[in-house]
Each structure stands twice: as structure tokens, then as C-alpha cells.
Amino acid sequence: MKKRFTDEQIIGFLKQAAAGAPIKDLCRKHGFSDASFYLWRRKFGGMDVPDAKRLKSLEAENAKLKKMLAEAMLDIEGLKVVARGKFLGPQARRNAVTAMRAKVQMSERRACRLLGLSRSVLHYASQRKEDGLQERLVELAGERRRFGYRRLHILVEREGYVVNHKRVHRLYRAAGLAVRKRRKRERVAVERRPLQVPPGPNHTWSMDFVFDALANGRPIKCLTVVDDCTKEAVEIAVGRRINGQGVADILEAVCRFRGYPAAIRTDQGPEFTGRALDQWATANGVRLMLIQPGKPTQNAYVESFNGKFRDECLNENWFVSLDHAKAAISTWRRDYNEVRPHSSLGKLTPSEFAAQLREHGSLQPHTSAKLATLDSTK
């Protein structure tokens, strides 16, 4: 309601009364009551116009400070309700707003501002329709515990789900799934020797040993052979002891099926530097490439494969016998070649990548000198 008289007018009335004008005549002349006059005199008595203006500004500032203090105390009381915990997600903040308003008389707008939540997000209702994708991700993660959300995304796409990797990652995190990272030993940094990319399948193989143990504690030895071009697991031979002659016999059996490679890269282990493997390589026109001692990065293709082999197969199985180990490792090798997507092959499996190369005819398998001689005599 607008005031009838300004502060300057009121001070003028008071000065007229102080000069001797009757109060009743002032009230009748200007149209205000006696009570108003005495109220004004108690408030503005002895003041000039500048003093009245200064008093008015102080009252306004005092009212503003009181309001700010009351709002701050209200905010503190509201935040005490949700003081514990972190509210990072939208749903957690929605719940916090509801709890805050239930305990403290606070507007929705103010509660949202305190928690940094938009009111549109507060009232948002999801329009998503459940398609069973999250349940399927949980099932696949249980079957393949060492697969992250990127490989699970490829697998569900193969099953017909039309979904991008961001939604898969969100559902993966919402389900509490995560691949536990195993702690690696600290190693001395060495200069990596660059590897040449083979011109085609069956040109260069990499070979190494991986060791494990059975349930009874007896050790087993695995010879891993990898095609550097297609990333196929050519062979994983399992035995209690594999010497140089055993390596040569295993390679001979594999080469009868796949053909002889142009070269095989190995470290300087005794099985690879012995006479038996050297004689086999010379007889079949295969060049042995030995890396420098203590430089496993120079044989990076098979070392990378060995890490996946140990992480996804050896560490995930408990072998009760040698036959059980051979069967489980053979199953995993077939799964690695035919089912498991490979990130460096455009998310194809090694078998699919090798089939594409042979179908397009851009890269042809290498034929060793021995096979070329046999073909020329036919």
C-alpha cells in the first residue's frame, strides 16, 4: 500500500507542531489521526530530512541482511538433511531434493539450486523401453569375465541389438560390472625395436613359451605360435616338458596343415637355439629370427598374445589334469580365432580377417622354398 505522506512531509508536520501549531488543527487540516502524529514524532522526533533518509536506508539494509541470514540458515538446515554421501548422478540428486523438502519447509526451486539440479531434470521421466540388454550384458560378463564393455558391445551387436557403445558403457557401469586390473610388476624401460608388418598370412610367425601348473602343483609348459599378420593362434601345444626336438615335431605337424612360413621369430631360449630346431628350419627353408637377450618387446606380437592367453584362459581355469588342460586350452584357442573380436583387426576375429585377405587376393600366403621345389616337380 502506498504511503500518503513522504518523510519530508512528516518532518514538516512535526516542525509545525514544534513551532506552536495545535496538533488537532494539523490533523484536521492534513487528514491524519492523532495516533499517526505521535507515532511519527516517536520515530522522526528531532530529525532533519537527511537524517530521515539515512534512517530509511539503514532500515532497508537491516531488513535485507535479516532476509539473507534467514535464507542462509534455511540452506544450512536443508543441507544437514543430506550432508552424508555424494550426489553425483541425477537420480541421487532427485532423491536428495525429495528428502530435503520433506524435512525442511523449502521451495522446490531453492532445493534444486542448492544441489545443482535443474528442475527439468527433477521432473524428467525416462522414455526408454526395457529390451533386456542389461540382463544380456550381465550374462555375457559372467561367461567372459575378462571382457570389457567394448568387446561386450561387439558381441551384443552380433546378436542383433542396435545400440551404440555409450549406452553399453552406461548399462555396464549401472550393473556394477568392471574388469579387475591385475597389478603388473615394475619393469625397466627399454628401447623398443620396431617390428615389420608381414606382407601376408603365413609369412612370419612368433613363438614363445608360457608356464602354468595343475591343481596338484605339477608344472605344465605351453608352446604358443602366432601368425604376425592375421593374429591367429596357429598352435598352443601343452605338455609337461617340451625340448628342442619337441618344438620341431610340433612345428612340422602344424606346417603339414598350414604350410611352412618364411620366418619364425623367437627369443634365445635353449629350446629355440638348439640343434634340433636349427636343422628343421634349414631343411624346410624357414629363417629363424632370434631377438636380443632380455628384449621381450622385440617379440611383441607373441608377448601380447601370451598376456591375453594368461589373462583369459590360464587365470580363469583350474586344471585338474594334463588332459583337462589340453582340452580347455584347445577350446579357448578356437574361441580366440573364431569368436573373440580383435581390436587391431577392425573388430574382426583372426579367422575372419584371414578369410578376407585370401578372398580379396591382395595378400597371398607365402610358400617356402621346400614347397616351391615340391610343386615344381609335380
List keywords for this structure.
Nucleotidyltransferase, domain 5, alpha/beta, 17 helices, 378 residues
How would you characterize the overall build of this protein?
The protein has about 375 residues and is an alpha/beta fold. It has three domains: about 5-125, no CATH class; about 135-175; about 205-360, Ribonuclease H-like superfamily/Ribonuclease H (Nucleotidyltransferase, domain 5, 2-Layer Sandwich), CATH 3.30.420. The chain is built from 17 helices and five strands. It has helices at about 5-20, 25-30, 35-45, 50-80, 90-105, 110-115, 120, 135-145, 150-160, 165-175, 245-260, 270-275, 275-285, 300-315, 320-340, 350-360, 370-375, and strands at about 205-215, 220-225, 235-240, 265, 285-290. Strands 3-2-1-4-5 form a five-stranded mixed β-sheet, sandwiched between helices. Strand 1 and strand 2 form a beta hairpin. Helix 1 (about 5-20) crosses helix 3 and helix 11 packs parallel to helix 13. The chain is rod-shaped and about 135 Å long.
